[in-house]
Amino acid sequence: MNAPVKLAITLDRLALRQRAEISSIDWTAMSDNEGARLRALGLDEGVSVEKLHKGMFGFNDPIALRIGRMMIAIRKSHASAISVVLPA
Amino acid sequence: MSEASPLIVLAGNPNAGKSALFNALTGARQKIANYPGVTVERKSGHFQLANGHPVELVDLPGSYSLDPTSPDEAVTRSVIFGEQQGERKPDAVIIVLDAANLDNHLRFALEIIALGQPVVIALNMMDLAERDGLTLDPAKLEAALGVPVIPTVAVRGRGLEKLSAAIDKRLTDKSEKRDLVVSEERGRGLRKQAKTIAAQTIVAETAGRRWSERADALFLHPIAGPIILLAIMFVMFQAVFAWSEAPIGWIEGASEWAAAAVEANLADGFLRDFIIEGAIGGVGSVVVFLPQILILFLFILLLEASGYMTRAAFIMDRLMASVGLSGRSFIPLLSSFACAIPGIMATRSIADPKDRLTTILVAPLMTCAARLPVYAIIIGAFIPARDVGGGVGLQGLVLFGLYIFGIIGAMLVALVLRSTVAKGPNSGFLMEMPKYQMPRIRDMLLGLWQRAWIFLRRAGTIIFAATIVLWLMLTYPKVPVDSPVSQVDYSAAGRIANVIEPAVAPIGFNRDIALALIPAMAAREVAVAALATTYAIDAPNEEAEAKSLTERLQSRWSLPTALAFLAWFVFAPQCISTIAVTRRETNSWKWPMFMLGYLFALAYVAAGITYWTAIALGL
Lengths: 88, 619
Prior knowledge:
- The complex is a heterodimer.
- Helix content of chain A is 15%, strand content 35%.
- Chain A has a 6-stranded antiparallel β-sheet with strand order 1-6-2-3-4-5.
- Chain A has 2 helices and 6 strands, in the order E-E-H-E-E-E-H-E.
- By secondary structure, chain B is α/β, with parallel strands linked by helices.
- Chain B has a domain at 2-209: Rossmann fold, CATH 3.40.50.
- Helix content of chain B is 59%, strand content 8%.
- Chain B has 28 helices and 10 strands.
- In chain B, helix 26 runs antiparallel to helix 28.
- Chain B starts with 6 loop residues before the first strand and ends with a helix.
- The A-B interface holds A 30, 33-34, 36-42, 44-47, 52-57, 59-62, 64, 67-75, 77-78 and B 64-65, 67, 69, 100-101, 103-104, 132, 187-188, 191, 213, 216, 220, 222-223, 225-226, 310, 313-315, 317-319, 321, 326-327, 351, 426, 428-435.
- Strand 5 (70-74) of chain A pairs antiparallel with strand 10 (430-432) of chain B.
C-alpha cells in the first residue's frame, strides 16, 4: 500500500466548498502588519480552512474562507502566498 | 464621586457582542469622547452592581490580540496594562467571548488572563451558539480557565445579574487561585491551547441550522449578490423621499403654526421679525429634513447591526481595488451618505494609512444628508415632476444622478490621490464577516436618538447662530425709506456678497447665491435657510412675502444657474465640522486644507462646466 499522496496548491486555487489544511505561509509576501492581522484572524500554519464564497462575477476576488466557526474575507493576492494541502 | 467608583473595562474580539453588552448594562446613559492625543473613541457609562455600588464601565475597541495592529488595538492594550493616558488602571476586566466562536476568541482571552488582573468572562451570544448546534458547558470553561464564566445573551438582557454579581465578587475578593499556565508562545502555542480549551467546553456539536450560511449563499452569490446590494441601495434612497413626505408635512405645519402664533401675539417690530424670519424661518427650513436624515441613518444602522455591511464590503472590494482602495473603505463611504463625520471616524478600522487617508479625503464627495435640503429645494423648484416611464419620476432620477455624480467624482479623485499624494502599494483586504443577526429594536432606537440629537443640537446652535448672524447682517443697516436700492443690496451682507459676486458670476451664480455660500460653510443646509431669509427680507410687500421659497427661486434664477448650483454642491467645500474632524483624524492641518482646496477647485469647475453646457444647449 502506498502512502496517500497529499496534493499541495495555493489557497487562491482552492475550489468552492473544498477543505484544506494550511501547510506554509510565505510571510515575506506581505508586510509585518498584514502578517500579524492574518494570524490574529486565525490564519496560520496547521489550520484547516474551507473556501465558502468568491467575489463578484468576472473577478472571483476576494474569497471567503471558513476558519473554525468564523468566516474571513481575504484577497487572492494574499491567498496566493498561502500553501495548503488537500486531505487525502 | 464617579472618579471614586471602580473602573471596569469590556474587552473582546470584534463581533463578540461587546457593544450590545455595554448597551444592556449601561442603558442610554453613555458618554462618548476621545482618548487624548489619539483618534480612538472612549465609550463609557455607569451602572450599579447588585449591591447598589456604582461602577464605571468602558467599552474598549475590539481587538484580536494584545499585539496591536491598529491604533484602536493599541489603546485596548495600553488601557488593560494601565498605561493609557487619560485612563485609570482598570479594577477588573470583563472579557466578552462569542460562545459560537470559542477557539478563535479564547486566544485574546488567554492573553489577558495571563496578565493576572481580576477577570470575569461573559460567554456571550449563547442563544446563537445553541442555534448553531453547539452545546456548551460554562462550568468546564470556568474550570479550565480558573476565572468566573457567566453565560449571557446581551441583546436579550440575559445573564446580566449574574455577571454583575460576579464582578462585585471580583472587586471585593481579590484572593484567587489560578492553576492555568498560559502558553508563552504567542502564535501557535496560544492557538493550540485555545483550541484544546474550546474542545473541552463544547459537549456536543451538531450541524445545526446554518441559516446564516444559507443566507450567504444568496447574498454573496457572484451574480445575485451585487444585484441585491444595488437593490438595497436603491430602496434606501427611494425611502428617504417616499417615507419622509408625511413627517415633513407635520414639521412644516408646526412651524407655520408657530409663525402664525407669534404674529398674532407680538406687535410688529424687531422681535417679531427676528423670531419669524430668523429663528422659525431659518432653523425651521433645516429641521424639516430631520425625517430624511433619520431614514438614511435607520438603513445604515440596520445594515451594520444585521452584519450585512461586511458582505457589502466583500462584494465591493474588487471594484474599490480598481481605484486603489479596499472593501474596507466601502463602510465609511456608505456612512458618509448620512454624514461625512461618522464616515471619517469609521475609517479608523482601515489598517493601511494611505488607504485611510484617501478614504478620508474623498468621504465629503459622498452626498451627505446635509446636502439633501439643498438638492430637494432646487430640484423641487426647477425640475418638473414628470414621469419618465415605469413609475420613475424625473425629480428622483436627477437626485439619483447627483449621488452617482458624487460617487464617480470620489472614485476618480481616489485614483488620482493613490498615484500622487497617497501613493503606496495596494493594500490588502482582510476582514471577519460575522454571522447575521436580527437587529435589536432598542439598539436601533438608541442609535437613531443619538443621531437625531446631534442634528437638532446642530440646528439649535451652529445653524441657528449662522442664520441669526446672517439675518442681522441682512436687516442692518436699514435702507432709507425712499431709496431705490433694495434692503438686501443696502445691508452689510448684501454689500459683501456684491464684492464676491464677480468671482462667481462666470459660473452663473448671482448675488443671492454668493450670499448663501458663505454661511453654508458653517453647515451646508444653511444655504437653504440663507436663501429663505434673504428672500423673506427682500419681499417688497406682504403678498410677496407669502410666496414660497420655491416660487421665489423660480422667478429669480435661470435653469442653468440652478443646475450650476446643484453641481457646485456635489463637490461643495464641506462644512466646518468636517474640516475639524479631518484635522483631528489626520492629526495635521495639511490634509484638511488640501481637502478644502481641491473641493473648492472641483466645485468651481463643475459648476462652470454645467452652467455653460446648459447655456449652449439653450436650457
